[in-house]
Design brief:
By secondary structure, the chain is α+β, with helices and mostly antiparallel strands. The chain has 3 helices and 6 strands. Helix content is 26%, strand content 27%. The radius of gyration is 14 Å and the shape is globular.
């Protein structure tokens, strides 16, 4: 099974056609259209659903548990998340938002266990804990 990091946007984006060295890309990674439709209906208000391809370290490991038990991996996940936030700051128009939902592939219909609201202009990175089944609204 694979962990999917879904991202919902209010506009369509061009998908990466070729492999790049970017730490994070918006693309289709593990999911099928059916998986994305479940996330859209169950969790998102945004009409365009993609996945975040994390080539660094998965953002769902940026939490208290990893900060204590695996600080090296926590820092890698934090760097990936900061890269994603930088990408979203450039991508999202001022006043717009995106939604992220992280879960195991096939568990898209399950209930959320965590919800976060993050403002890119006031990013308090040390207070953010991201786990699986976490819904995140990121506002620009």
């Amino acid at each position: 099974m694979s962990m999917a990091t879904y991202i919902g946007l209010n506009f369509a984006v061009k998908l990466s056609e070729y492999y790049t060295e970017d730490e994070v890309e918006i693309d289709y990674v593990f999911s099928e259209e059916e998986n994305r439709n479940v996330v859209k209906q169950k969790h998102f208000t945004t009409p365009y659903i993609y996945e975040v391809s994390e080539k660094g370290h998965p953002i769902w490991q940026m939490n208290k548990h990893h900060k204590i038990h695996s600080p090296h991996n926590y820092e890698k996940s934090k760097n990936t998340f900061l890269y994603l936030c930088h990408l979203l700051k450039e991508l999202l128009p001022q006043g717009d938002y995106c939604e992220i939902y992280i879960c195991w592939l096939g568990e898209e219909d399950e209930e959320r266990e965590n919800e976060l609201k993050i403002n890119l202009d006031n990013l308090q990175i040390e207070t953010i804990d991201i786990y699986e089944k976490c819904f995140i609204r990121i506002e620009n």
